[in-house]
Structure formats: C-alpha cells, structure tokens
Amino acid sequence: MIPFAEALARIADHVSPLGTETVPLAEASGRRLACDLTARRAAPRAPVSAMDGYAVIEAATQPGRAIAVIGEAVAGRRFEGRVGEGEAVRIFTGAPMPEGSDYVIMQEYATRTGDSVTFAEGYGPAGHVRAMGSDFDAGDVLVPAGTLLNARAMIGAAAADVAEVEVAVRPRVAIIGTGDELAVPGSAHAVRDAIPESVSYGVTALVEEAGGCVVHRAKCPDDLDVLTRAAGEALVCADLVIVTGGASVGDRDFAKPMFKPHGLSVIIPKVAIKPGKPVWLGKARGKIVLGLPGNPTSAMVTGALFLRPIFQALGGANASHRWHSLPLAAPLKATGGRETFVRARFDEGGLVPIGNQDSGAQAALLEADWLIRCPPDQAALAPGSTVTAVSF
C-alpha cells in the first residue's frame, strides 16, 4: 500500500492531458477551461445606475425643491445630453449615468409632476451609482484555466465577452461492473440472491459531474474470459476505463487480471486509506484504468477522491483537492492505522459524522456531503475541534 498523498502525486505524474478544442460558448457548460478567460472590456464600462430613479447633481439638489426632468436613460440607451444644476434625468437600473450627474435618487423618494420632480427628505446618503470597472476591468482574468465551467463559471465566461472558448477534450469513459450477484435495477427482486447493481450509476454521476462522458457500460459476471474481452472492448472506445468490484485478492477478483493480456502496468497498487484500500490505478494500451472497490460506500469515496484529480490531470489542470478547515458539531471517534475518510453531513455548527460508516452502506450515502480526512491513529475529537474536510 502507498499513502494517499503519494497516490495523488502519482496521478499527477502519470496522467497526461488529452488536448484541447475550441467550442461555442453555448456548448461549453460542463467542460474544463484550457486557458485563462480575460475580460475584453470593463464592467460596467461606464458609471451606471444601481436603481430606478433620477440622475442629478448631488450638490445642486435639495429636498422639496422642484427641478426639471430633461430626458430619460435606460439600460442600453444613454441620455445624450448633459445634466446641469436644477435638472434631472429619469433613469433606470443599469443605464449609463448622464454627463454631469453624479447621484441617483430612488424613485420611492420622487414625486413627478409633468416635466418636473421633487424629492422627499431622507433620500441619502447612498448615491446608487456603480463606478466604471467596479466589477472588473478590461484584461482581468475572470475564469482561470482549469476551471470546470459550472453555472457560476459560465456567467464569468459570458461576461468576458467571448463567443468561443478553448476547453480540454472531454474524456471518454467506459465503466465495467463485475460480480455474479449483480442484477439490473428493477429485476433483482425477482432473482434469488441477486442485488441491484448500484455502483456504476453513482460512478456515472461522478464522471459527468467531473466533465467526462460515459461512452460504454458493461455488467459482467466473474468470468475471466468474459472480463478480458470486456476490457479490450472498453480500451478501444475510451480514454479512461473504470472497473468496479473484483479489486481485492480473492480467487474471484479479476479486476487486474482482466487487463493483463492488454499490457497492464500498475501505477497505484492499493492505497492505505479507509474505506477503499483496494482502489488501484494503471495503464493498458496507453489508456488509464481505475479500479474501484465493489462496496457502494468504498466505491463512492474512492471515486470522489481519485476521479476528480484524474479528470483535472486529463484536462491539463493540477491534480488536487480543495481542502477546508471546518469545525465538528458532534464527537468524532478515534481512527485506526490507515488514513480514514469519515462520511459526514454539514449541520448548524459544523460537521456531524453520520452513524453508519460501513463500507457497504447505501442509504447512509444520502446523508453524507463531506469527507473528514483523519490521519492514521487519530485520537477521538470533541465537538468544536477543527478538522480537514473535502466536499463529497
């Protein structure tokens, strides 16, 4: 076994980027950005109103004094004249401030009578003006290379005013589930001793969340000849092959042997973590092969811990995790000799370890949205202690 930190380092050393391509911005959601996106202009590109109201010269405006309304400004269409003393321009949120004006009085304080307006006491002190460049300036990096273009990042990409973006080639993924006991969900109840095959569905979701595309899925019995053929088919169509189950050292654990005829070289043999010790990584025919345990919790924990950095490396980004320092809101039991990832939920006051930490648990996975990283032989911790955790 190797330590978890060394396993991440080996991913960085052995997983190479797949290359890049340019796609229309409208098709970029879920892709990994290949280069920095910089703003082509400032935002706002001129001072704009933050409220509906009236643009005036602050120093020349007094409550109760009627002033002339000389025009109107809306978002996308500015008032072309200049505001002088004793004048106002009706203005709407997002509209460029007229020349000469420096202040917006909200419409709630305004009384309009024909072509004049008066303002009630109490309209200050905020001026409700967004300064030019107050959001970002031209040339600012809005979305850095390596970012997975989720909903928030897509806002930044569009704000950069680009029609196309350079993204990493989307990894093609094949998933092979192994095990005589597995049945297609919906049929297991009718087959004695069968259980629904659940892991591949969770792995598929992890792949899609990480920016990959599942192009092939197979469910195979514990038959080495069948599995060897399935491995060959998967290696032809995918950049990354994920095999679930069969990762231990039993007589019917064929996850590694099924790839040996295809030139398997092992990069990570197994990792000193709990759960998920049998997880492994290798290469066959130049493709990456990830072996996940068959137990659902072990598979999801190791999938989260290893698929994210693998996809980052395939996309040309640093293979890493974003660790957080968070408080405990409930006691955390002592851990054993392996680095342990405790499933937890975030509650008021901090992280609460879920009650069922069994590697085969499935219902308990619905509760867990964080993994607490515990070093080997960590003593029990009391509520209020600070722990290191990663989003699950």
From TrEMBL:
Catalytic reaction(s) noted: adenylyl-molybdopterin + molybdate = Mo-molybdopterin + AMP + H(+)
Keywords, ordered alphabetically: Magnesium, Metal-binding, Molybdenum, Molybdenum cofactor biosynthesis, Transferase
Entry-linked PANTHER family: GEPHYRIN, MOLYBDOPTERIN BIOSYNTHESIS PROTEIN
GO MF, any single term: molybdopterin molybdotransferase activity
Record-linked InterPro entries: MoaB/Mog-like_dom_sf, MoaB/Mog_dom, MoeA-like, MoeA_C_domain_IV, MoeA_C_domain_IV_sf, MoeA_linker/N, MoeA_linker/N_sf
CDD domains per record: MoeA
The protein's name: Molybdopterin molybdenumtransferase
Similarity-based family: Belongs to the MoeA family.
Pathway the protein contributes to: Cofactor biosynthesis; molybdopterin biosynthesis
Signal peptide bounds: none
Limits of the MoaB/Mog domain: 174-313
Keyword Magnesium appears in the UniProt entry: yes
Gene3D superfamilies per UniProt: MoaB/Mog-like domain, MoeA, C-terminal, domain IV, Molybdopterin biosynthesis moea protein, domain 2, Molybdopterin biosynthesis moea protein, domain 3
Example of a GO biological process term: Mo-molybdopterin cofactor biosynthetic process
Residue ranges the record marks as coiled coil: none
Name of the top EC class for this enzyme: transferase
Cofactor: Mg(2+)
GO CC annotations on file: cytosol
E.C. no: 2.10.1.1
Species annotation: Erythrobacter aureus
Record's function text: Catalyzes the insertion of molybdate into adenylated molybdopterin with the concomitant release of AMP.
